[in-house]
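BUG: 3D viewer hangs when loading the predicted structure for this chain

Environment: internal workstation, default settings.
Expected: structure renders.
Actual: progress bar stalls at 90%.

Input used:
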Amino acid sequence: MVSSPGSVWLTLGMARPVWSGTISFGLVAIPVKLFHAVRRQSVSFNQLDERNMARIRYRKVNAETGEEVGDDHIVKGYEISKGRYVLVDPDELEPFMPVATKSVDLEEFVDLADIDPVYFDTAYHLAPDGPPKPYVLLARAMEASGKVAIGRFVMRNKQYTAAIRAEEGRLVMSTLAYADEVIDPADIDELQGLEAIEVNDKEVAMAESLVASLAAEFAPEKYHDEYREEVMALIQMKADGEEFEVPELAAEKPKVVDIMAALEASVAAAKEARTRHPAKKAAAKKKSA
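Structure tokens produced before the viewer hung:
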């Protein structure tokens, strides 16, 4: 795409595979390609010298002397206590590096409901990298059984555990966090003792009414990164030489102390919104029927 002078474009391009290999289970091997399922979008800025618009560069310096350090003097160290390090040579790490087998080795099939969502990390699309029939066969069998495959694979010298699920005839893979990476809620003081907090039936009923009044089908396209969109609009205006007036910051809303008053006001506002948008109301009734 060719842009006119001053225009700001976001070029995404065609999706490219980030890994290729095979899905292996038993004696079956299915060639696949791995594509990112999510393309993160954010606004990033460069630091510049305002005098000549040159980029600001960062250098590796000694924290004590402030002198620049060459790569030949930089070693790897693991801090075991404040200011105390254990040095590790890259050659000593070599034997522990996972072997890149180019294979997703499936070990078991489990129910999706058995996997706590907190374990899900990065999502990928799996696409066939050869005759599609074996891929389609596996996807349909998994979709019919409702099972999720758990396996391991190596990408960029790092081993991952992954969950593969079938979705509308396609395979989607998500890397999983390891159990020792997931924070135990018991380690968070603010989450302790919640079961002892008393709430009465009227409060629960009002909260349930609020939930019911806001019930809808999930439509991800409704949600936007408003900050990024507004910043990009600002950048576009500046690039086009247009004037831009900085909007005033919204005043912070006062905190509501009375929980029942807050719930009642929220339910009333939700009902009023439903009245203004009958299509949403009809959709909610259709779903409950």
